[in-house]
UniProtKB/TrEMBL annotation, chain A:
Native source organism of the sequence: Kitasatospora atroaurantiaca
Keyword Ribosomal protein: no
Pfam families associated with the record: Transketolase_N
Domain of life: Bacteria
Protein name per Swiss-Prot or TrEMBL: Transketolase
Cofactor dependence: thiamine diphosphate
GO MF entries: magnesium ion binding
Family, as annotated: Belongs to the transketolase family.
Signal peptide: none
Alphabetical keyword list: Thiamine pyrophosphate
Gene3D superfamilies: 3.40.50.970
Record domain Transketolase N-terminal: where: 29-214
SUPFAM superfamilies: Thiamin diphosphate-binding fold (THDP-binding)
UniProtKB/TrEMBL annotation, chain B:
Lineage of origin: Bacteria, Bacillati, Actinomycetota, Actinomycetes, Kitasatosporales
Protein name per its UniProtKB record: Transketolase
PANTHER family associated with the record: PYRUVATE DEHYDROGENASE E1 COMPONENT, TRANSKETOLASE-LIKE PYRIMIDINE-BINDING DOMAIN-CONTAINING PROTEIN
A Pfam cross-reference name: Transket_pyr
Domain Transketolase-like pyrimidine-binding: 2-168
SMART domains documented for this protein: Transket_pyr (SM00861)
Naturally occurring in which organism (per UniProt): Kitasatospora atroaurantiaca
Amino acid sequence: MTTAAIIPQEYGFRDLPHLMALMTGDEKHGPAATSTLDALWVLYDRVLRVSPAMAGDRDRFLLSKGHGPMAYYAVLAAKGFLAADVLPSFGSYDSPLGHHPDRLLVPGVEIGSGSLGHGLPLAVGTALGLRAQGLTNPAVWVLIGDAEFDEGSNHEALAFAGAYGLDRLHVVAIDNSSATHGWRGGIATRFEAEGWSAVTVDGRDHEALYEAYTAPHPGRPHAVVARVEPKNS
Amino acid sequence: MDTMRERFFAVTTELLDHDPRLAVVLADISTDGFAPAARRHPDRVVNVGIREQLLIGATGGLALAGMRPIAHTFASFLIERPFEQVKLDLGHQGVGAVLVSAAGSYDWPAGGRTHMAPGDVALLDTLPGWTVHVPGHPDEAETLLRHAAADGDSKVYVRLSAHRNDAAQPVEPGRFVTVRQGRRGVVLAVGPMLDAVLAATEGLDVTVLYAATVRPFDAAGLRAAVGDHADVVLVEPYLAGTSGNAAHEALADLPHRVLGLGVPREEHRHYGSIAEHLAAYGLDASGLHERIASYLW
């Protein structure tokens, strides 16, 4: 496994397309491949307290939407969790980088995901577990997609988290209008109805994302719906 | 005498007082039994409501945060309903937990099929690394629960039932107990089936082994018991033949025969009592005697 400490953190946001191209061979990616890119970057660059060296007191980021993880791997490489020279192995037999991420293979990855609807329940348990150990600093973040939001397990988790006041829990919902039947009134209304703090922003606007991520939400979990261009436009 | 489930409440409540890593996750079943524990440890006894996918997902998350979670509801809702969560939120994440069920295969026949889970152990057999305890007495349940709570980060299933034997056996996790010795074959009784097996084999020249832990399967114990006469009857309180593969593997290099007795796969659309269901499945003493004797003689 890569020794993270010796990798210099030398990449910025403008390097991400190049890092993604190492995996796909394509400098221009479709909306689906990059739908999470800006939201992930602002989180890792300005919000999350995580680094390759941090242990139990770190923030937790759970990528629930494990589909199309190239942007995720690129950000992890940019932030020193992965060596960039691993990226071209994407999807090959001996690569740690699958088309869905595996926490036991990739440094910095908190959960293995790919089957939809697992991240938010896992994040609820993680928030409960940190609290039970008196660790009140770490924030728990989970990224889901708007179509993933269809999964009933998410609704079990968001209703419970709202009722329980799990205020260290945060959701980023990437909304690229890919849910088959859509969500009338927008995804944020579902969170608000269950007592969450929720805000909807332009998922390509870094300042708007940062502001939404860092909005205070005392006593309540917080959801940020990041709207990006429709997947099928 | 208390039930296995009542013992689970008492033992876990005590363990929570002494081990800060332990947490209990419930889904509205047995919340009364854990009410005193929840008052003492509000952050470590969590009821998620009637949400079984979340029950297992949150259990996985607690384990990812470094806790040793114990999740509990009826077997139908603990293993069968959220099975993908059991597979992915525990096994695939590389974390462990203790899953403790109640009701098993036929504990509440008046409740019908919805509350019967005879396939739970067979389902767990499709996943790697699960320890499966099937105690036959509250004292055994206590021994195995204490062991499971302290068993590192392993994945453990403890299957509790209202069906029980009169006396506890001196169980050790992972070891079969020799209850009776004979020469014409081996009958392996799992958990609450022991009393009926002992009555059924009274006067028959057979060895009776007792298993309160079925995974890992005590292959060495079975091999030692069969000697040079490898005829084996498995009597299990869940789907007939669930441990058939494990028995065949244990005896792979010997000529052998294995008969798997247990709960039939077909739905049994009757209500009634545990005793009536055991009789209907051929798992009472007379039904077992007939099938064991005709197989071994």
